[in-house]
Structures are given as C-alpha cells and as structure tokens.
Specification:
By secondary structure, the chain is an alpha+beta fold. The protein has helices spanning 29-41, 75-85, 140-149, 207-220, 225-231, and strands at 4-12, 46-50, 59-69, 90-98, 108-119, 132-134, 152-155, 170-180, 194-200, 249-256.
C-alpha cells in the first residue's frame, strides 16, 4: 500500500504548552496539532514526527513536523483548514508533499535558536512569554566575548542535561553571538533587550539554556572567560551555573536542502 508524506511548517507561542512532544495529562503542541488533524481529516489514521523536541514554554518562529498518511490530502486544503481550526497561538506556515526518503530530523541542515533577555528596570508583565528578565546588572560586552567562545567544535558535556552513554557530546556551533534584539519588537518591550543567536546542525538536551545560564553567570561576575574555556575541554563535565529559564528560548528557523 502506498504511503504519503508531508512536511508541515508551524509557528507557535509555547508559553501555555508543555513542549512539542505529546505527553499524558499535559497540554502539548503535538497533542493540539493531532487533535486538530483528527477533526479536519475525520480519522486518526496518520502519524506525526516533529523536527525536534522543545521544552515547556519554548516558542518557535519556524518549526516543522512530518505527517505520514495512507491516503493523499490536498496541501492547500490542509493548510487552510489547519489555520481555521488551530488555536490562535499556533499557525501553519506551509504544507508540501515530500518523498518517502525525506527525514524531518536528519535532513535539517541548520537550526537557529534565539534566547531573548533584558536587565535593569523590571519588564512589563506582557514580556514574560518572550524574554527573560535578570534583576542583576549584566556586563553585555563581556557576555559577547563569552558567547564567541562557544563557536566551533567542542565537547559540550558541561552543557547537556543527563546525557546517556550513547549521547554524542562533540558538537559544532556555526554561530554563537549576542546582539541587540531586533527580532521581536513591541511597545511594551524595554528600551534595550538582547538576543543570543545560536546556529548549529544539532543540539544536546537543554544545551542552549545551559550555555545561556553560563553567560548570565559571566555577565554577573560569578565566573570568568577562562571558566567557560575550561568547560569546553574534554575533561570538564560539570555545569558552570544554573539552567536559564525556558521562556526566553525560541527556535527561530530551520534550514532544509
């Protein structure tokens, strides 16, 4: 029997969801998407596979999942119906048919993450779903230097939550830099906010949040640039600081061939 494969691109605000992956007794993006698909297709004879797992409260400007079907579906119809029936914090960006050889996880060439944060005067409460507020003064210029240390190929064992024996800890970051935030704007955002930009092929569990935690510690003066350099050596296995809150993290983009 022939099978049909579709790539569906989404945006979602993760603030009220317990991540992408379906779990019992909690609200997830995958669970909401599958519930909507059942309503649209009038059956549950399909399967979905996300491009990555996201933590609770993490948002996505461009996320993708693969839809496996036993019957064909009109892509324009599906896109329209998804946006009619999905809740307002999830939007479908596109639907296209792909070959059976396509793999939504392995065929992603680069993933781009952002982590938005600010410090100084406390933020307007409406900022909470998008950026993390730090009450301490942060040395942004020092943090920029620290972020650049993560670029390139390193052993990220200090930046992985509970790795297994099979976890590949050697990873390469193509970009890791802090810039003034010009990605998201709103009239209730603080005058100055910042974004950590991280680009790579693949990421370890909680890697970006642990890196951001180390950069916060650096900016507060709790650790040094040398501490971050040592943490990327093969012999170092302990986290330098706390895991930064999830709400500032966003999967900004996915690049496929």
């Amino acid at each position: 029997m022939r099978k049909y494969f579709y790539l569906v691109e989404l945006q979602f605000l993760g603030f009220r969801y317990h991540g992408w992956q379906k779990q019992p007794n909690v609200k997830t993006v995958q669970g909401m998407v599958e519930k909507t698909l059942i309503f649209i297709l009038e059956h549950s004879n399909f399967r979905t596979l996300g491009s990555s797992r996201t933590d609770a409260m993490v948002s996505a400007n461009n996320f993708a999942f693969e839809l496996f079907m036993k019957e064909p579906v009109d892509t324009d119809f599906l896109l329209e119906q998804l946006n009619i029936n999905l809740p307002n914090d999830i939007r479908a960006l596109g639907v296209e048919e792909v070959s059976e050889n396509f793999n939504v996880i392995q065929d992603s060439k680069v993933k781009e993450y952002l982590y938005l944060f600010s410090f100084g005067e406390k933020n307007h409460p409406f900022c909470a779903p998008f950026m993390v507020y730090m009450k301490e003064h942060l040395d942004i210029e020092l943090m920029k230097q620290g972020a650049k240390l993560f670029e390139g190929a390193h052993n990220f064992s200090s930046y992985c939550y509970k790795p297994s024996e099979e976890t590949i800890l050697q990873r390469e970051l193509l970009v890791c830099e802090i810039r003034e935030n010009d990605v998201l704007t709103a009239n209730f955002f603080p005058e100055h906010s910042y974004a950590l930009h991280v680009h790579g092929k693949g990421f370890l569990r909680h890697q970006v949040r642990l890196m951001m935690g180390a950069l916060f510690a650096l900016g507060k003066g709790d650790i040094t640039l040398e501490d971050i350099e040592k943490s990327l050596q093969n012999s170092h296995t302990e986290a330098l600081s706390f895991m930064a809150p999830a709400s500032g993290l966003m999967l900004n983009n996915l690049h496929y061939e």
